[in-house]
Amino acid sequence: xxxxxxxxxxxxEVAEIVRRAARVPAHVAIHGDxxxxxxxxxxSLDFVAVILQLQDHFEVVIEDDAVPHLxxxxxxxxxxxxxxxxxxx
Length: 89
Fold this sequence. Notes:
Blueprint: H1 8-22, H2 44-58, H3 73-85
């Protein structure tokens, strides 16, 4: 599980992208501890859409070997924040 400090606004931004990309119904609450598969019912095809949307939106690359560790919304937000803040080569 990845952990890092990030603000609520960033997590909300990630949640909204996840909601749109995976077509999560509006009545389903999304919070940091939401499990993408168990709580949000995101299947593998929708998960690919989520990853692609997040990469495009934040202009980062989500490495294939990191994907199995991105189980919760907080994991995604933390990973993205780390990539967003990392110096580009």
